[in-house]
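Sample pair:
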Amino acid sequence: MSTSQYTPKKTLSSATKEGLMRASTASLHTILFKRGLRNTYIQGVSKINKGPVKMVGQAFTLRYIPAREDIDTVAAFRDPEHPQRLAVETVPEGMVLVSDCRQDASAASAGSILLNRLDYRNCAGFVSDAGIRDSEDAATMTMPVFCAKPSAPTNLTKHHGVDIQVPIGCGGVAVFPGDVLVGDNDGIIVIPQELADEVAEEAVKMEAFEDYVLEKVRSGTPVIGLYPPNEDAQAEYRRYMESR
């Protein structure tokens, strides 16, 4: 397992986290798209929790390569430096453990024991483009859990952990240590950590405007000229906000 110079440049501020908690992944994708970032949505991954969850946290990354039968035996888990076990025990509080499993969900990347350990350690969430075991237990957890699907086979059958805190690909998206992941019912958006503050600030304004638009649409207003707003609609929105 190698070390890396890729460490978070800064910690997510409480104001930025609060703004992102209020933002939908749909809005965040649009904001990033306007900045020229098109590939920010992790493909093939969805939340497994039955209840509503919202995930916001910086990425703590774990990279796998394909397993090899002579190395990846059950005895491998006895190694205290095993990357999967080490990641579970070293991910800082409030960060999201993100696993790069090459989008191979034919084996699990975690099960209820590891997920509950992460929950106990106040991890902000677990994300994997592979499967997870013990999905019924995971579905009842308060910690956000996102994966490709339930999958019974142990990760050793397909996944060999090699690196912690290096740039990875998860669901086809580049994830660098410290990048900000936001997850909801629609999936997960990855925000480059250097853009997180300004994206959060814009998201708060965007969500307020879209709440206004929904109110207008539900009362019968046509969307043409309203969304996106023309000059008259912008003026009306300013008056609306001033009145509040």
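The first strand starts at residue 46 and ends at 47.
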